[in-house]
From TrEMBL:
Taxonomic path: Bacteria, Thermotogati, Deinococcota, Deinococci, Thermales
Membrane topology value: Multi-pass membrane protein
Organism whose genome encodes this protein: Thermus brockianus
Protein name as annotated: ABC transporter permease
Positions of transmembrane segments: 50-76, 88-107, 152-173, 185-205, 252-280, 301-326, 359-379
SUPFAM superfamilies membership: MetI-like
Length: 392
């Protein structure tokens, strides 16, 4: 029964997705075949199980595939075994939440891969099947490699910098400073501020003529968001060195975007790290102090190892979020920078899908980004998680 309920829910979701144009049409007859097979199998337990065949009305009434098994269990549930009842009602309670996850996460992923196999899908005309042609074009696309390189720099700069700053601030806030709740709220406020609004404010801060940053640094006229020169090239220029291409580093405009991103997400990391610090028993620090350990020794030998589960969690989420960066880049540099120096994978995906109306190529970019994130996450778990200490 619980297998029939699961198949019914998946089929109902497939019918709804097909009606909205978010799923290939072959899923509907495939779901009918699976549901019908399970329902017919139930006839061996009694003719009353023929009522389950009413779920085949799902192409016209999608939720029949879910409601019919549920109603059947409510009517004849007492005749089921205790174990079968527990499994069925457990799945019945889990499926509404699981269905949301499937609708907004799992199904779109498979549908994106399906779209990537066609040629220039724009939902206005039939698209020809292209196989892996979009992926072959992607590998030869200089803009894709430009976006990937920029995203790499974004990950490399923002994730470690944000984590180190947040750890230092959290340690300072955990030392018994007065008005700790006020400071915690103060640091968390940027994170709950709408990202578009925060980016718009930072765009004013970076303004070459009226910006606060140029006034503060005494550099009037410096256009932070339209300077494509790499920061490494700028720093090494006084030494007579000027690396080119990727080795010139991220542009000054992209570094400005990174600074805004670190500021926005810093509060979230501080609050999470502060919770991790407060879970460490104070007796460990008292014993270390009695043994003559210095401030740095206490945090190197106690804080850092015992805080490793929290830092590993934030590091993993940070990399996943960094590969999906879009909003602040779009608001601060709507064109992707002067020489596409702030173009990221998510921004390039958006341009291909919604500017060029090429959803098949955009889906290919999405699938490659997904695979990169998946591989990096698995590598992190393989290499870094073994260093995590879960015992306090």
């Amino acid at each position: 029964m619980h297998l029939l309920l699961s198949v019914g829910v998946l089929w109902a979701l497939a019918v709804l997705a097909e009606r909205l144009g978010f799923a290939p049409p072959f899923l509907v007859p495939l779901g009918a075949l699976a549901y019908g097979a399970f329902a017919l199998y139930g006839l061996r337990f009694g003719l009353r199980h023929a009522l389950l065949l009413l779920g085949l009305l799902a192409p016209w009434f999608p939720w029949a595939a879910f409601l019919v098994p549920l109603a059947f269990a409510l009517l004849f549930g007492r005749r089921m075994g205790e174990r079968e009842q527990a499994a069925f009602y457990g799945w019945a309670l889990v499926w509404p939440a699981l269905a949301l996850l499937l609708v907004w996460q799992v199904f779109p992923t498979f549908y994106a891969f399906y779209l990537s196999l066609f040629e220039k899908v724009n939902f206005l005309r039939p698209a020809a099947f292209a196989g892996l042609e979009n992926y072959q074009i992607l590998l030869r696309d200089p803009l894709f490699w430009r976006a990937l390189g920029n995203t790499f720099w974004y990950v490399l700069f923002t994730v470690p910098t944000g984590l180190l700053l947040a750890t230092a601030i959290a340690i300072l806030l955990n030392t018994g400073v007065a008005f700790q709740g006020f400071y915690r709220t103060l640091y968390f406020l940027p994170y709950i501020t709408a990202l578009t609004a925060a980016a718009a404010v930072w765009r004013w801060i970076y303004h070459p003529e009226f910006g606060f940053l140029n006034w503060l640094l005494g550099t009037p006229g410096l256009d932070w968001l339209n300077t494509p020169t790499g920061v490494f090239a700028l720093l090494l220029r006084p030494l007579g060195l000027e690396p080119q291409g990727f080795w010139a580093g991220p542009s000054l405009a992209f570094v400005a975007v990174m600074a805004m991103s670190v500021w926005h997400f810093l509060g979230y990391q501080v609050v999470i790290l502060l919770a991790g610090l407060q879970a460490i028993p104070k007796e460990y620090y008292e014993a270390a102090e009695l043994d003559g350990a210095s401030f740095w020794q206490q945090h190197r030998l106690i804080t850092w190892p015992l805080l490793s589960p929290t830092t590993f969690f934030l590091f993993t989420l940070g990399i996943i979020g960094a590969f999906q960066v879009f909003t602040q880049v779009y608001v601060l540099t709507p064109t992707g920078g002067v020489l596409q120096d702030t173009l990221t994978l998510a921004f390039y995906l958006y341009n291909k899908g919604f500017r060029d109306s090429d959803f098949s190529y955009a889906s290919a970019i999405a699938m490659v980004t997904f695979l990169i994130i998946l591989v990096l996450t698995l590598v992190q778990r393989r290499i870094l998680e073994r260093r995590v200490n879960y015992e306090i």
